[in-house]
Every structure is written in C-alpha cells, then in structure tokens.
Predict the 3D structure of the following.
Amino acid sequence: MNNRTGLGIIIQARQGAQRLPGKMVKPFYGGMGILELILEKICNGLPNVTVIVATTTSHKDDEIVEICKSHNVVCFRGSETNVLDRFIQCARLHQIDRIVRVCADNPFIDLEGIVALIDLFEKTKFDYGAFQTSDGKPTILSHHGFWAEATTLEALQRIARHTQDRFYLEHVTNYMYQNPQEFEFCFLRIPPEIEAVKNIRLTVDTMEDFILAQTIFRTQKELGISDLKTLISLISENKQWQIQMMEQIKLNTK
C-alpha cells in the first residue's frame, strides 16, 4: 500500500541494451540479477511506497515481467524507443503524479537518497529534483550510479509537448536540465566525502562495468558494508578498481 497518494518509484529496465544486452537478468550476486537485487532493496526498504517497473513491449522483456511477478511488483510495458512516453503512460495509468525515477543499471542505488527525494516532494514544489555535485552537475549525468532523480508527471508531459527529438525521448529528463529556464529545480548536494573520491563509476553499461561492479558488490556483502560512505572508503583504498573505473569513464563519457 502506498501511504503517499500520487507518489511512486518507477524503475526503468529493459533487456535490449546495446552495449550489454541481457544485463538486467545476468547472474550478478547470490543467483540474482541486478534488477532483482534493486527490487529487493527498494521493496524491503520502502514497503509503503508504490514501486513499478517500466519495461518494453518487446518479447525480450518477457523475462523482466516474470521477475516482477515473482517479487509481487507491478510491471508496465510501453515503448522501447520512446522512454519518455513509457514513463508518462505508466504514471497516468497508475495515477502517479510525483515520480522517483530509478535506472535499473545501478546495482548500488542508494536507498537513503531515494528517501531524501521522497521527503523533498513532501516539503518542496518543483519540476525536477536530484542530487548534484559541487559544480552544479546533476548526478544523473555522472558515472556514480548511486542516486535516483525526482520529477513530476506534469513536467514530463510538458517535455512531450515541446519536443519530439529522439535524444530527449530516449533520455527522459535531459530536456529539463538542458532547458533550465522552462522548469523549477530543487537540488540536494552529495556528501563532500563522496565527491572527494574522483572517477567513481558504478553504473553498469559494459561487460567491464559488470565484472568490476560484481566484484565490488560481493566484497561489500562479505564485509557487511551497507552505507554509501563506507563503500566509498573501501573503493578509495583500492587503486586497481579506480584505474579500471577511469578507463571505462574515458570510453563511456556522457
């Protein structure tokens, strides 16, 4: 049950990623794929918030639907290429006007960050809310892979009215922070001790990302690390991990 009417977490997931097809269900840790681990974290950590997985109508994503069923999570199927419309239709159908958007290629998604965005919705009126670096960059444009972002259905519908550019239809919120004069923003700063560790990349786009993230995730679990700051400290002590991350950042700069 959702105790916050009109608010929901929508997780974006599909199997057809060009750089690493099937990464959502590929065994990652404990026999589970990245999507399952994210669902387990969010659903267990926020049992009173609506969670929906937004995937595509492609037969390749039938497996995602089955995973959602096994976790008792609602799954919405929409356009494979027009992700903006997929979010709009999903939110309309489920009467969600305040959306916390999670990308399912981020196995280290920070639950406390999601809670902070939900709290922000309760306290502030905005079109787009997110964490940002000290230079003003929204973390969705970074390689961290830790933070979700928040937006409203109305803001997404406004984007759809203003543009049919394929780039903006695929990248749901980019239009907003590239056209800041048209929207109202609310940002939270990421902790300075996290930003101090440069070149962190834990989003999973490539096989190299997957293998490194898998190693770090397993190490984190073995050491019983559950908070983001301790995880960052662990990474800062491993120079080889940082070298590997930097190599992938150079190859996959957004």
User: Anything to note?
Assistant: The chain has one domain: 7-194. Strands lie at 7-12, 50-56, 74-78, 98-103, 128-132, 149-152, 185-189. The chain is about 45% helix and 15% strand. The domain at 7-194 is CATH 3.90.550.10 (Spore Coat Polysaccharide Biosynthesis Protein SpsA; Chain A).
